[in-house]
């Protein structure tokens, strides 16, 4: 591998690295050879480097690396920059500018899987790893600066000066003097995945005897066809689904519904708030008859990207006839099976697949997640024992799963529905719209409202006209279970396109997730506006628009002020919008551009008047 060292003072660090097997060292400094050789011990280190076959290059500007190397020698696997500084008494602003130019230059010479190592004195970096931590404005803000060039902080650890044979720091205020490196940290940066380009996506599917197509809502373009549950997937969501199914099959007769279930439903879902639904308009001339739709199965689903000249009427945000919508639950499919009597009493019908729900933004609120639905018909009067057997089986399976995941130890506890009240998370709150719930399945001994509810159990005594049978169903949010078992704090990480996520789960093995993007920077923007007179402000639509505009980089929306103007009665709202990505680089300029676009689209789609 090719290793580039920048800003070497006396070349003692480079000399300590040279000679490593399989490594070619290129050591550089900003000064000329005559100036560099005058530093104490530099001449000896330079000779040692050259004798070992390393390259030594002088007068190298770290912000213009591409200019100093020929095209064939321009790619490096690792770049070191120890204790960068503009010199003399340069302040934090100038040193941030130096780092910004350095990272932009690294983007042109670093290998795709390469690393950048930047050592800083204690407190300079501005991350929680610094102890004590400086105030943000007085730090070098290295993670935010690197994000502007497309890099994320993937590791940070103490700078091990003692591990480098013969290393001696020098360059204090541009002099041949040492400085204190106690508590210094080495920051390791890697390339981020590129920002997502949300090209309009067309979905084609079979409904009855007719093929139909529709445009996927922009907020779902990168989520609707990911195949997490497919046979060749090693995603933790599939692993948990397979383990739960296997556990159920050991205790009950199981029938897995393997046919492709329709993504689209027709009509108006009873009891569900319409602002929580992704409404769909079929392409012109392709709407099937009601009978075909209700009986149709999605035998095939095909996806293709629209061109830029796509009819704007199909874009999300235009008036949508409320006829078709993306399925918010698998429960209607189970009800169809029950109505057809296509089951045997006591046999579990197991369905699984993604479901889609508009919701507010939070670490545990997902516009799409994978549902595992278990349905069975039992003799009336025996439902309590069946429910307990079902819960015990699920708890045993989950307990066996987390035993192999050190540090993540949730437990599944059965809680009465009435014990939660207003503390339900968005998943459970939406499920209440689908019908009465007897029991919640919650992770942890002391459930917290932030995201503890991972499943629920309901009974449907009216599904049969017969008085002998009653239907019991259990719904599990596989994504929330994966987060809890693998220690994933943000649901967005489950959907990342960065390959480093799935590499942590080889062959479907569950492990405690280690984030590859540490201390991601956040950017706070406020927006204030007048609400249209006489209208209730739709917060779900507001949050959904933020998801769409930001590509899921808005991590929090908080109401800061609710003001009613005396005399006119006009109402003004002020929200604080926080941008932060969990898996890719997000710079302050990109966040500011998103905020401006958000403001524009709020006026267009929500009818508000900006203040």
List keywords for this structure.
transit peptide, 25% strand, 14 helices, seven-stranded mixed sheet, SAM-dependent_MTases_sf, BirA Bifunctional Protein, domain 2, alpha+beta, 3 domains, single chain, elongated, Rossmann fold, Alpha-Beta Plaits, 611 residues
Write the layout of secondary structure elements.
Elements: E1 2-6, H1 12-17, E2 24-28, H2 33-37, H3 42-51, E3 55-57, E4 76-82, H4 92-106, E5 110-120, H5 142-147, E6 151-158, E7 185-191, E8 201-207, E9 210-215, H6 236-251, E10 254-256, E11 264-266, E12 279-280, H7 290-295, E13 301-305, E14 324-326, H8 331-339, E15 348-356, E16 368-379, H9 383-402, E17 412-416, H10 426-433, E18 439-443, E19 453-460, E20 469-477, H11 478-486, H12 499-502, E21 523-530, H13 539-550, E22 554-564, E23 571-579, H14 588-606, E24 609-610
Helix pairs in contact: 6-9, 6-11, 13-14
Description:
It is found in: Mitochondrion matrix. One of its GO terms (biological process) is translation. This is phenylalanine--tRNA ligase. The protein has 611 residues and is an alpha+beta fold. It folds into three domains: 2-191, Vaccinia Virus protein VP39 (Rossmann fold), CATH 3.40.50.150; 229-261 and 327-502, Bira Bifunctional Protein, Domain 2 (BirA Bifunctional Protein, domain 2), CATH 3.30.930; 523-610, Alpha-Beta Plaits (2-Layer Sandwich), CATH 3.30.70. The chain is elongated and about 95 Å long. The protein contains 14 helices and 24 strands. The model is unreliable at 289-322 and 445-451 (pLDDT under 50). The strands form five sheets. The chain has a seven-stranded mixed beta sheet. Strand 22 and strand 23 (571-579) form a beta hairpin.
């Amino acid at each position: 591998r090719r290793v580039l060292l920048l800003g070497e003072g006396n070349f003692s660090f480079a000399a300590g690295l040279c000679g490593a097997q399989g490594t070619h060292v290129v050591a550089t400094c900003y000064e000329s050879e005559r100036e560099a050789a005058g530093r104490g011990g530099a001449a000896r280190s330079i000779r040692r480097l050259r004798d070992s076959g390393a390259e030594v290059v002088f007068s190298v500007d770290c912000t213009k690396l591409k200019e100093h190397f020929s095209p064939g020698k321009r790619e490096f696997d690792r770049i070191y920059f120890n204790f960068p500084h503009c010199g003399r008494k340069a302040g934090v602003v100038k040193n941030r500018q130096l780092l910004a130019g350095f990272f932009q230059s690294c983007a042109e010479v670093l290998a795709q899987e390469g690393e950048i190592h930047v050592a800083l004195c204690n407190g300079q970096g501005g991350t929680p790893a610094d102890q004590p931590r400086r105030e943000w404005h007085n730090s070098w803000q290295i993670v935010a600066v690197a994000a502007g060039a497309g890099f994320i902080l993937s590791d940070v650890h103490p700078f091990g000066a003692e591990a480098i044979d013969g290393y001696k720091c020098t360059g204090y205020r541009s002099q041949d003097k040492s400085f204190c490196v106690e508590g210094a940290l080495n920051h390791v940066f890697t390339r981020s995945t590129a920002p997502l380009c949300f090209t309009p996506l067309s979905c084609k599917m079979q409904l009855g005897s007719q093929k139909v197509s529709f445009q996927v809502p922009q907020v779902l373009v990168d989520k609707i066809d990911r195949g997490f549950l497919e046979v060749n997937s090693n995603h933790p969501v599939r692993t948990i689904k397979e383990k739960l199914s296997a556990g159920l099959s050991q205790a009950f007769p199981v029938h897995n519904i393997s046919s492709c279930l329709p993504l689209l439903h027709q009509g108006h879902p009873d009891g569900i708030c319409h602002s929580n639904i992704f409404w769909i308009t079929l392409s012109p001339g392709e709407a099937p008859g009601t009978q075909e739709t209700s009986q149709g199965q999605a035998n095939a689903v095909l996806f293709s990207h629209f061109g830029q000249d796509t009819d704007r009427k199909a874009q999300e945000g235009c008036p949508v006839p409320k006829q078709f919508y993306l399925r918010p639950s698998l429960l209607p499919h189970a009800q169809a099976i029950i109505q057809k009597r296509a089951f045997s009493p006591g046999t579990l019908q197991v369905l699984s697949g993604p479901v889609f729900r508009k919701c507010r933004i939070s670490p545990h609120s997902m516009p799409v997640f994978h549902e595992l639905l278990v349905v069975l018909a039992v003799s009336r009067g025996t439902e309590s024992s069946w429910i307990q057997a079902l819960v015990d089986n699920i708890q045993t399976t989950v307990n066996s799963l987390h035993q192999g995941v050190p540090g993540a130890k949730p437990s599944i506890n059965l809680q009465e529905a009435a014990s939660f009240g207003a503390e339900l998370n968005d998943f459970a709150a939406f499920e209440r719209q689908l019908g009465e719930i007897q029991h919640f399945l919650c992770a942890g001994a002391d459930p917290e409202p932030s995201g503890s509810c991972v499943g629920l159990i309901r009974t449907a005594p009216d599904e049969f006209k017969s008085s002998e049978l009653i239907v019991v169903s259990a719904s599990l949010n596989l994504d929330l279970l994966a987060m809890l078992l693998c220690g994933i704090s943000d649901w967005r990480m489950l959907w990342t396109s960065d390959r480093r996520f799935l590499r942590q789960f080889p062959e479907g093995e569950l492990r405690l997730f280690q984030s590859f993007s540490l201390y991601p920077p956040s950017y706070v923007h406020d927006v204030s506006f007048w609400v249209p007179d006489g209208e209730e402000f739709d917060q779900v639509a507001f949050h959904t628009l933020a998801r769409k505009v930001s590509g899921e980089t808005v991590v929090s929306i908080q109401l800061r002020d609710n003001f009613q103007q005396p005399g006119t009665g006009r109402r003004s709202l002020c929200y604080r919008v926080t941008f932060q990505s969990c898996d890719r680089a997000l710079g302050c300029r990109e966040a500011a551009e998103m905020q401006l676009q958000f403001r524009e689209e709020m006026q267009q789609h929500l009818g508000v008047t900006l203040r």
